[in-house]
Each structure stands twice: as C-alpha cells, then as structure tokens.
Amino acid sequence: MGGRIIVESVAGCSWNGWPDDRGIRSLIISALKQELVTVDQYIAEAQEKHRGIERNALWLSQTVLEEKWNEAAKALFDVGGRLWANYNLLGIDQVSLLKLAVPQAGERVGNWTWHELSDRARSHSAQDLLHLNRLHS
Known about the structure:
Number of strands: 2
Distance between the termini: 103 Å
Shape: rod-shaped
Low-confidence stretches: 5-13
Mean pLDDT: 83
Strand order of the largest sheet: 1-2
Organism: Pseudomonas syringae pv. actinidiae
Helix content: 55-70%
Protein name: L-lactate utilization protein LutB
C-alpha cells in the first residue's frame, strides 16, 4: 500500500488533493460542457435580440414601401388622368380603364379607381396633353 488513496465514488480524487489524469480530463470536459451551455445561452439571447431588431426594421421598411407604393400609384394616376382626358378629347370610350382599382397602402384603406382618373382628367386641356415632357410635373 502506497501513500496514495483513490476513492472510487469520486473520479480523480487522490490522497494529496490533486486529481489524477482521469480527473483532469473529467474536470476539463465538465468545464467545457458548462462553457458550451453558457455559449448556447448567449447565442439564443443574441438570436432573440436579432429577431426583435429585424422585426422592428421590417415595420419601418413596410412604412417606407407603403409610401413608395402610394407615390408610384399617384404617378400612375397622373398619367392615367392625362390618358382619360385624351380619350375624352378624341371621343374614345374609356371602357378599358373602368375596371381599374389600385389599393392604397398604409393607414388609409381603400382603392383608387377610374373616378380618380376622371377627376384628374378635368384639369387637363388639349395643350397640356401635347406637352408629354411635362408628365412628371
């Protein structure tokens, strides 16, 4: 019997208080497992924060896209109003535009319809329609 006593129920115990090789490996593995748990928790928290930030960014993006949609729809209706006026001046029926319905995006719920084209058409004269370079004004 030497001066070293190993206790079977506790891996790595020795007489002088220092763990043997199996005990060192066991401690390292245990520490690494705990470190993995901690890292996994940080990753989960970061992913949750990322989802929240991404969702906030999507709400902001939606607002910007709705504004762009409405601006584009208004530009379309500016041209459509001129087209409607042109049809009127030429005596052409506007049947092709009667089914037009463009949804408004954002807080306003509704559609822009041919009524909007008709209303806009009233503000254009033949001279206005001949100046195609003014379409954006």
